Structure prediction request, 705 residues.
Amino acid sequence: MSSLQELCSGLPLQPLPENRGRWAGVPHAPVRTPGLSPAEEQLALKNALRYFPPTVQKLLAQEFAQELRQFGHIYMYRFCPSIEMRAYPIDQYPCRTRAAAAIMHMIMNNLDPAVAQFPQELVTYGGNGQVFSNWAQFWLTMSYLSKMTEEQTLVMYSGHPLGLFPSSPGAPRLIITNGMVIPNYSSRTEYEKLFALGVTMYGQMTAGSYCYIGPQGIVHGTVLTVLNAGRRYLGIEDLAGKVFVTSGLGGMSGAQAKAAAIVGCIGVIAEVDKAALVKRHRQGWLMEVTDSLDHCIVRLRYSWLHRTQSIGGRGGSMARAVQCLMSSHREARKKKEVLSLGYHGNVVDLWERLVHELDTTGELLVDLGSDQTSCHNPFNGGYYPVQLSFSEAQSLMSSNPAAFKHLVQESLRRHVSAINRLAQEKFYFWDYGNAFLLEAQRAGADVEKKGANKMEFRYPSYVQHIMGDIFSQGFGPFRWVCTSGDPQDLAVTDHLATSVLEKVIDDGVKASVKLQYMDNIRWIREAAKHQLVVGSQARILYSDQKGRVAIAVAINQAIASGKIKAPVVLSRDHHDVSGTDSPFRETSNIYDGSAFCADMAVQNFVGDACRGATWVALHNGGGVGWGEVINGGFGLVLDGSAQAEQKARMMLSWDVSNGVARRCWSGNPKAYEIICQTMKENSGLVVTLPHEVVDERMLQQALRP
Prediction:
């Protein structure tokens, strides 16, 4: 494949591309075990072959059947393009509309091997966050986008391009739904079958909506989370010398190492897949890598003499190194050293070793802890049990799923037991919204919080204690992508965003809002220094409605004046103020009983489409897993026109106010305050406000028999 023009010409059939199978040297998705019956296997094969004319079906049937039985899914490896997969400058795409070219730019970024977790299986992040279900869908989608006009909309059903349909210039150019399974059939078991049949797909959040910007997004979220955890749990602004222990360096979790360096703490991150550690180390996101627990403990206590040594030693050499270090170096924590250390091993071993150090020496070597394994998908590669090596686990996962599940749940119990012991001291743990505590509870681990509702556990979700108040004030992960691919355009947007936020502060804001703006100004100023761009030229920050609209207007005006050379795509994580209904994460701090209702996310999807979004997406699953959440997102192309500015003002205002109004109605006082202020500033906004029940004793009195 030599050009984007060829990539947009439809499925390559004459001749068929060479079948090169799975590429060596590239991470691959774990083997799936959908448990299809013989009849279901035939249906999966039939569904895959309907993308191809009869002249090639016999040949493809054999290899697709082999893929299904060997890997548990038909990815159509033969049709994986040979072109370098990356976000090309927008002007290079052969399209009839700028909007379509911007979408293609975003799709190819999601599949860039530097960005995607399992690029050949079309997985961007999270272990199973698909961009498409198979490569035929990719080819057809790119072809449709190249042909699309401003009077057509491309409709996507769980990765499948249903086709181009007539619409109006003001309508979205692309509408995506992923995983919209009837609720009574939205179980994990049913999902595995439906995905193998090729009829539904788990799009995670920004994988299936084409809005992923690499791990930078979660770097920023993790920076804010750890900063605010320090404020809440430790009562400090400066995290120098404090230790943060967690796990996961694969997809989004790879951000944790860089976040530790940015906030200035000591981060130790465990990862079972050596390829993931090597990738993050080469990117400069991990400062050191070791496969030795001894080395981890030494590194927490003492400065390391040889910074350039990647892998720690073992046995006698380690003992001699320890003795040398003990005699000649100060403790890393006392020195307030900044460190991101990747441990190649299972995080349960790391937690249990920290318990051993506490019990034998009385020294607590960790201050803060969390977990970013893909625990939403614990039995298909999202969580690896401590009892097995990485390769042993991958083998057992496919050969004996029941035995693998048993070991995962046993490992989760050990995992929690170690955390519980450390939490008896001055150590603080939170659930990072990856369903860790939910799956631990299902495994029988001791995570119960006595007297709590079913959304609460012994340890809080990071939304409940750390980020929930930020959402209630309308702050969330706003992002943009410079489709020119030019770093200078990104630098211009960084300057504009900083200036906008500084002006908002100068105009006067509450102290709590000012703190969030200051955190984000610091973030932007640090971003270039820390080389956060992986893939497209993108930036993320947390902002409220006022900040988002002002930044969008400033960027659009810069495009119009030529300061920015090409259109800019505005987007956000689905993990936001209004985008996601998830009772164990985004809406875990909503206590009026509506946390299990999905009206907010669905209304947001529809409302964004009505107010000018270039594309919209609605997903089942994402973050905490299939059947546990409904979430949605958008893309909005700024091209410097007056129409683009009008759309940005209208759509971004709704995209924030919807969630703040919902949180206000649930009884959140900060959301009440923010939505009242927003109504004062916009006479067209009229929100139903709740009345407080001033004396709750009347409730019991009224309900007495």
